[in-house]
Structures are given as structure tokens and as C-alpha cells.
């Protein structure tokens, strides 16, 4: 088997270059009282979905998001980690699939003179059909391009969605900006950080000197302890090592997993998704447990291996965590391990992964019908079976589309199903919401 091994220097790809127009901010006027579709969340899935709605002739959509710009939460988290390149290749992007939009690869080629020589090599590899690395700067500018091209910021408002009440004819969306009635709602709420188990420390808040990967992590005055085996953990470890610090890396698995994508690439293809279709619930749970596991990009391996060999990185493999202690009386924070040892440092950073937001905090429980942490979705429309006007796009659809549902390419597959379903619903609605095909 051929393994894609990009050179590790791409982890230091430049950040902060402007490849296009500045990002467009959300509207600040009153939220409309009605819409054909309300999109909850403004991340990468929402960008691709809204762009596809635009092409399909559904222009009466509204996006409500907590961030101040489309894709903002994803990009903010990347900057918090210091992430410089994407894990996704050039053919995975939030542009509308099946329409004559500018593709991400074309967008990069048009900015050829602004790329480094190494980044140009990656473009050439992509043109030849090989997997390649996308600089974060290029991807961010492309997202802004898609937003501007389809006028998405003019349909977006910054606010919190507090409750969703579906009925047979419409859906009432209650937000911090007021209520809005829609014929359909799509949840693009993504994932949230997994918090530590309740028995790791007393109380609800992390003790002094203990935090999560999604929070800004400064340079510690002493050693850093990182708990987690995924890409976020690798970024935190690398950042601490680059600052000249000592790092203890606690991996509860028996070894690190290095791979190009965070799920098996076969799941991005139709035959991979068919492994989920028609199988039993237990079979799907087993596949999710096997293939949705923490992993690190191959680019990190040379630097992390070298750091471990010289002793600046100590990796604790196959060890669970029994307790976490904060700093007290000027002493260090500490993590107690299942083998009876303890590691200490000036700060402890927890990178415990993410879990999908399935709508449980917004929808009635009898609509979500949660089972093993997953919602009950129709396999054709990705709508909640108990509320056919409410759909889920992204990680919440993993038990229908497989683990690739949480990735950009999986968003495209889900978008196609949702848009097709909503088009049919709007065109057969007694109210005959006007839909103009483009």
C-alpha cells in the first residue's frame, strides 16, 4: 500500500497572508419573521449547504450562528492551535458540488505567485491527481470567496438558537434575536469538545493550571502535560516543544496512530458509505468505534520522534488517567496515571476529542430519539424521523453516512440529500414557496 507522506515543513506554512477580499460580517438588522429554510450554525457545512441552496434557487434562507463570520469557529480553533495546514486534500472543500463554481484547486492556482515553492509543489501534486496538503491561508481565503460569491453573509445573523419547536406545517426557531418561522430547518451545529470525566477532579470547573485544547494555551514556565492522542494534542505538544519546553504526552491508547485522514479513506467513497447502508445498528456502532478514533497527521511524526529520542518529549502510552490535580501553593499541576505513576507540569492541557451535537439541546427528546448518543435520522433526507422538516448535517449524521459525515466531503453527500428533500418539500407545499431553478 502506498502511504502519502508530505514533508513536515508544511506544518510551518505561512499564516496571515491575504489572498482575497476581507471576510464579510453578518447582518445587524432585525431577523426576518419567516424563511423557507433556517440554517442553525455557520461553519463549513453551512457554507457548502447555503451555497448549494443558492444554486438550487432557494434564496429565502437564513443562517443564525454564534460566531461573527461564516466559518469563524473553525478558523478560530485552528489559530488557537497554531494549525497551518489542513488535513483535507484539495478536492475536499465547501464549494457547491455539481455547479460551475471555482474549485479550491483553481483558487490556489490563480494565486500562484503568492504561494511558497513547497506549496506550489502541493498544487502540482493535486493537479496530477495525488493527495496533497492545503495551506490554511488558501483555505480561509477560499471560504471567504464562496461566502462573497453567493452573498451568504447577507443571509446570516449572529445570535444564539435557544429552542426549535417543529410541527406538521412549519418549524418555530426561537433565537436571541427573536422568533422565526421556517418551512424547514437544518442543524449544522458540528461538534463540541469532550470534557473530562467527573471523577478526575472535584467540582465542575478545571482546577488551576488545567485547561482544554480549545482554549488559548500559552507558553508554560515549566513542563507541559498533554492528555490526548489526536491531532489537537499533537499541535499542543509541538507548540510546547517549539518553545523549548519539556512535554509529557499521555496517550491512553497503546500507541499513536498516524494517518492522512482522520477516518479511513474508503468511507469517503460510495462503496464505503454502502458499508453502513442496510447494516444493523450494532454493526454501525462497531464500525464507528473502530474507524472514528484519534489520529495524528503523518507530518508530525519526524519531529515528535526526534523530540522523544532526545528526551524533551516523554510519551506515556497505554496509560489511563485516574485523577488531575491543579496547582496549589506554588506547586505544579499533576496527572495521576493508571500504572500508579504521576506526571507533573506547570500546565495540563486536555485534548480529549470531540462529540457530535445531535440537537438534544434544542429539540424535544421525543424528536431526537437519541440512541447510544446518535439521533434517529431518515437515511434518504437526513431528517429526524419524528420531525421531517428538521434535518441534520455533519457529524450528527454519522450513523447514516458513516464516519466521513463529519468531514467536508461527507458534508457534500449530506448536502445533496438534504437539498433534494427540501426542494421537493417546498415545491409540493400548499403555500407553494417560490423556488426558481438556476
TrEMBL record:
It comes from the Bacteria. InterPro entries: FAD/NAD-bd_sf. This is Uncharacterized protein. It comes from Micromonospora sicca.
Amino acid at each position: 500500500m502506498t502511504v502519502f507522506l508530505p514533508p513536515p515543513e508544511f506544518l510551518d506554512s505561512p499564516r496571515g497572508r491575504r489572498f482575497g477580499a476581507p471576510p464579510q460580517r453578518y447582518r445587524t438588522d432585525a431577523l426576518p419573521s419567516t424563511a423557507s429554510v433556517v440554517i442553525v450554525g455557520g461553519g463549513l457545512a453551512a457554507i457548502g449547504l447555503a451555497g448549494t441552496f443558492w444554486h438550487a434557487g432557494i434564496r429565502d434562507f437564513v443562517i443564525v450562528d454564534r460566531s461573527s463570520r461564516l466559518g469563524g469557529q473553525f478558523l478560530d480553533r485552528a489559530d488557537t492551535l497554531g494549525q497551518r495546514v489542513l488535513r483535507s486534500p484539495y478536492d475536499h472543500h465547501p464549494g457547491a458540488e455539481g455547479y460551475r463554481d471555482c474549485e479550491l484547486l483553481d483558487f490556489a492556482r490563480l494565486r500562484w505567485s503568492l504561494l511558497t515553492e513547497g506549496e506550489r509543489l502541493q498544487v502540482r501534486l493535486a493537479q496530477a491527481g495525488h493527495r496533497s496538503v492545503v495551506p490554511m491561508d488558501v483555505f480561509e481565503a477560499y471560504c471567504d470567496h464562496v461566502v462573497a460569491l453567493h452573498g451568504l453573509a447577507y443571509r446570516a445573523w449572529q445570535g444564539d438558537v435557544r429552542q426549535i419547536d417543529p410541527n406538521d406545517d412549519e418549524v418555530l426557531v426561537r433565537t436571541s434575536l427573536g422568533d422565526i418561522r421556517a418551512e424547514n430547518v437544518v442543524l449544522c451545529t458540528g461538534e463540541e469538545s469532550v470534557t473530562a470525566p467527573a471523577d478526575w477532579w472535584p467540582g465542575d470547573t478545571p482546577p488551576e493550571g488545567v485547561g482544554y485544547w480549545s482554549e488559548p494555551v500559552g507558553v508554560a514556565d515549566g513542563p507541559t502535560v498533554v492528555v490526548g492522542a489526536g491531532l489537537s494534542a499533537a499541535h499542543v505538544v509541538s507548540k510546547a516543544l517549539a518553545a523549548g519546553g519539556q512535554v509529557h504526552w499521555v496517550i491512553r491508547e497503546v500507541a499513536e496512530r498516524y494517518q492522512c485522514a482522520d477516518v479511513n479513506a474508503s468511507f469517503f467513497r460510495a462503496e464505503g458509505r454502502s458499508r453502513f447502508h442496510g447494516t444493523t445498528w450494532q454493526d454501525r456502532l462497531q464500525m464507528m468505534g473502530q474507524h472514528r478514533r484519534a489520529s495524528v497527521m503523518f507530518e508530525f511524526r519526524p519531529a515528535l520522534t526526534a523530540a522523544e529520542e532526545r528526551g524533551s518529549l516523554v510519551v506515556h502510552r497505554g496509560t489511563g488517567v485516574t485523577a488531575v490535580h491543579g496547582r496549589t501553593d506554588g506547586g505544579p499541576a499533576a496527572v495521576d496515571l493508571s500504572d500508579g505513576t504521576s506526571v507533573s507540569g506547570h500546565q495540563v492541557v486536555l485534548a480529549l476529542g470531540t462529540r457530535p451535537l445531535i440537537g438534544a439541546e434544542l429539540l424535544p427528546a421525543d424528536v431526537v430519539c437519541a440512541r447510544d448518543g446518535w439521533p434517529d435520522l431518515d437515511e434518504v433526507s437526513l431528517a429526524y424521523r419524528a420531525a421531517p422538516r428538521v434535518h441534520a448535517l455533519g457529524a450528527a449524521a454519522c450513523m447514516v453516512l458513516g464516519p466521513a459525515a463529519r468531514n467536508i466531503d461527507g458534508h457534500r453527500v449530506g448536502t445533496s440529500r438534504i437539498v433534494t428533500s427540501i426542494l421537493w418539500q417546498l415545491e409540493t407545499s400548499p403555500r407553494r414557496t417560490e423556488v426558481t431553478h438556476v
